[in-house]
Amino acid sequence: MDQILNEAREPDHRTVQHYIDERPAWPDGTSLPSAPMTSMQWRIWSLAAAGKFFEGFVVFMTGVALPLIAREFGIGASQDGFISAASLFGILVGAVGLGGMSDRFGRKRMFIVEMIIFCAFLTLLILCSNFISLVVCLFGLGVALGCDYPTAHMIISESIPSLSRGKLVLAAFGFQALGALAGTGVGFAVLSLDPDLDAWRWMYATAILPALAVTIGRFTITESANWLHICGRVERAEEEARRLLFRKPLYPPNISLSREARPDGHGGGQGFAALFRGRNTRATVLASVPWFLQDLGTYGIGIFTPTILAAALGHKADHVRSVSDIILNDILAAKGAALITTLLIVGIIFAVVLADRVGRISLQVVGFVGCAAGLLVASLANGFTGESQTVMIFAGFMLFNFMTNLGPNAQTYLLAGEVFPTAIRGTGAGFAAAFGKIGAVATAFLFPILLVAIGTTPLLYILVATSLLGAVVTWKFRIETTGVNLEDI
């Protein structure tokens, strides 16, 4: 790096993203293929990735904890739905409520607030003594995680080079899959070490200290210079951009942002009505509807994989005779869920590699079709018996998990934070996440009821149809954002 020279140019009053995208040059004038990430940029990325990890950890662990909670509090199928839907409904509220506040109060401030809320309700959760308090705490956790959907995306994408935006945002998002695997793994470990009904409290307690560490870390990052600039706080934007891009040797050597009036105005003053004006309408449909459709399947399959496996593979007794039956069934189902969840990680790895090469839209369409194929394979398992049935169910679910993280689960998140103007990016991404979580909440609440009422196979047929519809909507309203400066989209 000592041989690299800074690009010699006078300040030309460019935007923040132009400075972030600026590449150093060798003495002969040859530019590097990309701008190396600074330590601050990596810190921002790491702390955002941690937030996605906690989401997967808490939400997917609920699938393992649910049988224990139901037994301890003596609740039925409809109340099971409330427990599963509470955190998802909180995500909906947090995404549309707190997420949009990042356009008014700043990305960093909401980035910190969400983790404080998360730590508070996580601590209260392990102390719950009845059904109502449990639902309230899970809802509070969801509010924090919902705020993280738009905020984490923006704080990464507004701080990194355009050419690497896709892979870095998705790499952080991939920690949701790692969290899901860790959640089922911790659930299995805790049940093995403490085969008792209150083991679910220890499951959630394992996240408290890591969450506190992440909260402290978020106080040390920079505010989004893009957001500060759009708000007219130019001097502060320049200061934060210098902190963000500090490296040795120093480049860019100087940062002087445009003082011209920004057409977008103050980020917080437009509200949700702006999402349905002019070209923003197309962006809103693309960001929201496919997300809703993919969440129907992703959360339904993700949360209830242990339950479906137990029922389909014979691990779940029709009449539970004792607490030990519940523990044994839950351990066996958690093992199967952990195996299937590993395909989420494989899928996100492929998404990270391909997002900036193949493009968001193509991956989302192919992913939706692949999800439909996986669910169809799983639905056909009833036509088989014994080992063949087991193979069909596992193959279908594993294909679904791979394709959802290659395509819609990853790409809907990525697109929602890219297709809106900076001034309403938090509001737009928050609305899209909230709209998606309507599907997740409906699925979490209705799934345990529908599993009993209509059975597994018809339910999977419905999800096949919604996946195919997602591919159609994505293609019709497509906006390709791959490698494009966010300010030019």
Automatic annotation (TrEMBL):
GO molecular function list: transmembrane transporter activity
Keywords of the record: Membrane, Transmembrane, Transmembrane helix, Transport
The Major facilitator superfamily (MFS) profile domain, residue ranges: 44-482
InterPro entries: MFS_dom, MFS_sugar_transport-like, MFS_trans_sf
Protein name: MFS transporter
Superkingdom, natural source: Bacteria
Lineage of producing organism: Bacteria, Pseudomonadati, Pseudomonadota, Alphaproteobacteria, Acetobacterales
Membrane topology of this protein: Multi-pass membrane protein
Family: Belongs to the major facilitator superfamily. Sugar transporter (TC 2.A.1.1) family.
Keyword Transport annotated: yes
Subcellular location field: Membrane
